[in-house]
Specification:
Layout (H helix, E strand, L loop, with lengths): L11 H28 L4 E2 L9 E5 L11 H15 L5 E5 L9 H11 L7 E4 L5 H10 L5 E7 H13 L3 E7 L5 H23 L12 H8 L2
Parallel strand pairs: 1-6, 2-3, 2-5, 3-4, 5-6
Helix pairs in contact: 1-6, 4-5, 5-6
């Protein structure tokens, strides 16, 4: 079976309309990215200047075969541990994927943090943070978080802040440094497409894949430190 190649318009009018359609498509594709940059412009900080906030959220970013955090996830956890040691945060909410028995991001994140000086009692695990929107909604509805410092790589942090703000969590974002390798470029490219889904999530506010009952873990961790 032969596949016909698309034919370009032969008339000037047709060519002009094609160019206009392509330009309109590019503008529409970039609107969500523009929204992310504009809406989060004043919400980004560094580990040196982020204001004191009771809760920090660290988003999962994959595990190695040995169950250890990937380098990207380790950088996020290092930043959280640094903020804890500096007294800028009190509790760390680790949110990630535990959709199958042999893959547990939150527990791996907890283990890493305790090895780097964060007391186990100050770490709360969200095992159903399957994507950024789910993590933000669950932080608000399940764990009762109203304000948080979000920690992720620079290419992801704007989307995280925008979605958590849309979910009702007043947020500051700390974008950690990362080596500009193939993963970094893939992540940056992926964000262009993920911005569209983020815009839809912010507008329609769907329920997470799994919601469940409210959990007092964050409140208990905060009370234990007072």
């Amino acid at each position: 079976m032969r596949i016909r190649r698309p034919r370009l318009p032969r008339t000037r009018t047709g060519q002009r309309r094609l160019v206009q359609a392509v330009m309109a498509g590019c503008v529409l594709a970039l609107l969500p990215v523009t929204w992310l940059y504009v809406s989060t412009a004043d919400r980004l900080r560094t580990t040196a200047d982020v204001p004191h906030t009771e809760v920090a959220m660290v988003f999962g970013a994959g595990l190695w075969k040995q169950g250890e955090p990937s380098p990207y996830l380790a950088h996020r956890l290092d930043a959280a541990a640094r903020l804890y040691r500096q007294g800028r945060i009190e509790v760390v909410l680790v949110t990630g994927d535990n959709s199958r028995e042999d893959y547990d991001e939150p527990d791996a994140m907890r283990t890493y943090l305790t090895r780097h000086g964060v007391p186990d009692a100050r770490i709360v695990s969200d095992y159903a943070g399957f994507d950024t929107w789910d993590s933000c909604v669950r932080a608000r509805k399940i764990f009762g978080v109203h304000r948080a410092v979000l920690i992720s790589q620079g290419f992801h942090i704007r989307r995280a802040v925008a979605l958590c703000e849309a979910a009702g969590v007043a947020s500051y974002g700390v974008g950690v440094d990362a080596k500009h390798d193939a993963t970094w470029y893939y992540g940056g490219t992926r964000e262009v497409f993920a911005a569209g889904k983020a815009a839809l999530d912010a507008v329609f506010r769907p329920d997470p894949r799994f919601l469940g009952r409210k959990e007092p873990g964050v409140a208990r961790a905060l009370a234990a430190g007072r």
